[in-house]
Write a structure and sequence with these properties.
alpha+beta; two-stranded antiparallel ribbon
């Protein structure tokens, strides 16, 4: 988890506070397919192992972990640069963490859809009325797509 640092056994004065920071950054990802409520998906560094991930979550976040499954997602070759050479997206490791007994997790809805009340006279109201009027005006099939305002 953290770098192996050797500290002296004795220090003069009061013992200093040591803060251990990890070398890894985890990204919690919303799963693309439905998963059980006790499973969380993470993107983790390629060097991180299952045991390190389990220790990381249990010691730092105090989350009980039952099992960890990992897979490596290979990057795609779809993009091309200005010389028409293929550009490969980097590979990344995906971890599926199964929580302990009785623990569930639901991904938070950060941006919920709110029903918007449109005020009369606002820009949205004017745009809505304009779009309704556009739908009512049908072009004459004999004019072959030339609009009415363009008189011949």
């Amino acid at each position: 988890m953290a770098r192996r640092v050797i500290y002296p056994l004795y220090q003069l004065g009061n013992p200093q506070i040591r803060v251990f920071r990890t070398n890894y950054f985890l990204t919690m990802v919303r799963p693309g397919v439905p998963q059980p409520e006790d499973t969380i998906q993470f993107r983790i560094p390629m060097e991180m192992t299952r045991l390190e991930l389990k220790d990381y979550l249990e010691t730092i976040y105090k989350v009980p972990v039952a099992a960890v499954r990992t897979r490596i997602q290979h990057g795609s070759f779809r993009q091309r640069d200005y010389r028409n050479r293929r550009i490969k997206k980097p590979d990344y490791k995906v971890a599926y963490v199964q929580l302990g007994a009785g623990q569930t997790f639901q991904f938070p809805d950060l941006f919920p859809e709110k029903p918007q009340a449109i005020e009369s006279g606002s820009i949205e109201d004017i745009q809505k009325k304009f779009m309704e009027d556009e739908g009512r005006q049908k072009d004459d099939p004999k004019r072959s797509g030339v609009s009415r305002w363009f008189g011949l």
